[in-house]
Design a protein that fits this description.
By secondary structure, the protein is α/β, with parallel strands linked by helices. Strands 6, 7, 8, 9, 10, 11 and 12 form a seven-stranded mixed β-sheet that branches. The protein has a five-stranded parallel β-sheet with strand order 2-1-3-4-5, sandwiched between helices. α5 packs across α13. The protein is elongated, with a radius of gyration of 24 Å.
Amino acid sequence: MRPTVQDVARQAGVSLATVDRVLNRRPGVRKVTIAKVETAIAALGYIRDISAANLAKQQAYRFAFVIPDGSNSFMHGLEAEIEAVKLHSAANRTEISIYKVPTFDSLALAATLDRLDPRHCSGVAVVATEDVVVQDALARLCQNNIPVVTLVSDTPARQGQTYVGIDNVAAGRTAGRLMGSFLGARSGKIVLLAGSMVLRDHVERHMGFDQVIISDYNQLQCLPIIESMDDSGIVKQRLRRCLAAHTDIVGIYNMGAGNRGLIEVLSADSAGNKHVVVAHELTEHTRRALNTGTFDAIIHQDAGHEVRSALRILKAQIDKTPLLAGQETIRIEIYLNENM
């Protein structure tokens, strides 16, 4: 038979009201009494029924997802996964709101975070930049005891924040290994495309890619990063200019979005140049590029896993409950034409 709160109170020699205050982290309980209750809980193996407790208190979780607006196909997929979870959230006493901000607009992102009312927001999941204004806004949320999960791109570690996403240094190293392996003995230059270097995921991918190329493929030279704000039109314009300026380009690594512009440029290459192309995120467009041989490899992360993981982590932080080890690890997936 499972131990109850009455058993905990009896074991600790305190009242039921005192046990309730300790379980709910309410003030007014002496440290020695808290220690007695926690010792009794451990000795009895008491496990609190969080769902029943929340139901009794009429407590609901209210979560905010703050994501970039724009044409980024992966972010559209992330939003679709949030909407899918929303369909079933009411049954779990969970309310989910989505706030979209202009891509790479740190001031708008910070303002959106600051408008979240601590009285009506239980936790926040956000795709954040490293700009100071955004980091300060995240710090204010944590100061108000609102747990924060950063999605897709990590940020400088602060108390109260948890990152949910792939290891982007490892993803960059994976891209470097794929590039070097596909090129073999070929020598030449590699084009590096990024959305913006204010995003830590792009910075870390570049770092990992560079490490492998410099260490193991000294016949290859990485060109300076082309920043495109993840805009397909900008990718198209700047990549064309780069290809015209360098006749010895053998590879292209796109560590951000804007893949439609990249595909358009490569598809229109009448000279028949074959560049090895490694990019990120499996979408309708990148899947087609793999199938046609325009792209050689896609490094992917599961947006649905990230959304569900963010919710589990936020709930665990609120309820002070443990998480299953390994369940929240977002794995790096590699797609080739052969394994589609």
